[in-house]
Request: fold
Amino acid sequence: MPASGVTEREARQIAQLFADLVADGAALGWVDPPDDAEIAVLLTELAPAVGSNDARAAIARTFTDDTAGRIVGFAYWTRYTRATHRPHVDLEKLAVARGARGCGIGTTLMNALIASAHDLNVEVITLDLRGDNTSAIRLYQKLGFERYGLLPDFVAVGDKRCDKHFYSLDLRR
Ligand SMILES: CC(C)(COP(=O)(O)OP(=O)(O)OC[C@H]1O[C@@H](n2cnc3c(N)ncnc32)[C@H](O)[C@@H]1OP(=O)(O)O)[C@@H](O)C(=O)NCCC(=O)NCCS
Reply:
């Protein structure tokens, strides 16, 4: 994603991607599907952070629908704001449309984000996720992320409680 941000059309597609996945029960940090306005704010804040090298976002699109393409994947990391954590970044979201899964898009988005972090001399990429998100856990482990912590029964989804897992990838190694 360029520092100039995305178009309104792209923002709506990213909002739709997140909303569909959350409605489908995806563990993306929302209980209810986010609306277009919430995602527009998120993207508007992300763009200048990309410009100052405090964020990177990767977009996957298909060109089968029309020439402008349809967004089927979106992921981004942001740099830690705390002064002592500035060499490090946190993967905030990784999302691939249900119909586009299992063909390497998640891996490709992650590899792009890891490469962009490497290029900016980022030292550690962290992420956290729900312990029952086995497909994402396999993906992160495949890419070299290692679990460094676990909070039992921490994530509240209605009455249900799930473990929260913490993973990191040390790019200095
Ligand atoms: C997790 C997610 C991003 C994976 O995207 P994807 O495009 O299907 O991933 P890939 O095709 O690149 O597969 C990468 C690896 O993920 C794992 N994986 C993917 N789908 C899986 C499944 N259904 N079951 C088990 N493992 C799976 C595998 O290890 C796979 O590697 P392999 O093909 O070499 O075995 C996608 O399922 C998704 O968007 N889920 C909902 C949102 C979410 O949970 N995001 C992560 C929050 S932290």
Observations:
- Strands lie at 55-62, 70-79, 88-96, 124-130, 146-157, 160-170.
